[in-house]
């Protein structure tokens, strides 16, 4: 455990807590967190997760814009639900991304866990995109992904980061409950 990891983990908890509360400051705080984690994942040779953090940086900017300027009236997005076809399409894209990235990492890098790292990376991108668009289903996907990350980081000996993802899991469950109560989800 390093100070850098401790700071990144603390920022991550703050960012997700703010996301649950639909506070747009979650995005710039999240941006700082993902940049710190990009550096850490490079040191740990978790290249898919490094790539994920770089892509998350772009999604942090996209999410901040969506939450403050997106939507039909450009006054910020409201919580909404995805239809079943869009959920399935997103999961299929996540699966295809996992296969492609896993193949690349397994055959062209010295990644320590190329396939699992790639799968978690790909599905995290789907969940983050849904979150930036304020889709309720982002939280269910985050619960699954975060639980897998807990096991992955425990196995990798990254205990503080595993603890962070355990907290993320609890926050995702809280986000699911909170966003389900938002009147915009049900068209009220």
UniProtKB/TrEMBL annotation:
It is a multi-pass membrane protein. InterPro entries: NMN_transpt_PnuC (IPR006419). Belongs to the nicotinamide ribonucleoside (NR) uptake permease (TC 4.B.1) family. This is Nicotinamide riboside transporter PnuC. The chain crosses the membrane at residues 46-65, 86-106, 112-132, 162-179. One of its GO terms (cellular component) is plasma membrane. It comes from Pseudomonas berkeleyensis. It comes from the Bacteria. PANTHER family: NICOTINAMIDE RIBOSIDE TRANSPORTER PNUC (PTHR36122:SF2). Required for nicotinamide riboside transport across the inner membrane. Signal peptide: none annotated. It is found in: Cell membrane. It holds the Pfam family NMN_transporter. Keywords: Cell membrane, Membrane, Transmembrane, Transmembrane helix, Transport. GO terms for molecular function: nicotinamide riboside transmembrane transporter activity.
């Amino acid at each position: 455990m390093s100070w850098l990891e401790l700071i990144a983990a603390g920022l991550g908890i703050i960012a997700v807590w703010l996301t649950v509360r639909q506070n747009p400051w979650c995005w710039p705080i999240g941006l700082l967190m993902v940049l710190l984690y990009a550096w850490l994942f490079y040191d740990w040779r978790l290249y898919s997760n490094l790539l994920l953090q770089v892509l998350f940086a772009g999604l942090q900017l996209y999410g901040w814009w969506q939450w403050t300027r997106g939507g039909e009236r450009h006054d910020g997005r409201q919580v909404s639900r995805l239809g079943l076809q869009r959920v399935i399409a997103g999961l299929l894209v996540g699966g295809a991304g996992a296969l492609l990235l896993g193949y690349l990492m397994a055959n062209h890098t010295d990644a320590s866990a190329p396939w699992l790292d790639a799968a978690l990376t790909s599905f995290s991108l789907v969940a983050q995109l849904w979150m930036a668009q304020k889709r309720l289903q982002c939280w269910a996907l985050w619960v699954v992904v975060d639980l897998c990350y807990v096991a992955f980081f425990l196995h990798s000996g990254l205990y503080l980061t595993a603890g962070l993802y355990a907290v993320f899991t609890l926050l995702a469950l809280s986000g699911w409950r909170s966003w389900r109560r938002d009147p915009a989800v049900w068209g009220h």
